[in-house]
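Batch manifest, entry 17 of 40.
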Amino acid sequence: MKKYAPILAALALLAAAPVFAADSGSATATSAAPASAKMSHGEIKKIDTSAGKLTIKHGPLENLGMDGMTMVFRVKDPAMLQQVSVGDKIDFVAEQVNGALTVVKMQKSQ
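Output type: structure tokens
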């Protein structure tokens, strides 16, 4: 039986592969969401450059199923922090990135 253990383990992984592939497919669709996701509206309340975070008072985040509130977000690119000031109105897309809510796209509101 020990002789077949590696083969059985490999077969078990192969049998589970379609499940992982389906999960990866949905993750890929989510990762592509910033380009097509509806932008949310918010106001910058605090900028923490050293931590790479923004505090944003925002409306509903439809792509995350969240109601409006004030919360802290990481930013995808630290350069984003230089583009805004406290009090600025913004349109943005946030996503779960490695378990953290992250602003992946942002622009000042007109």
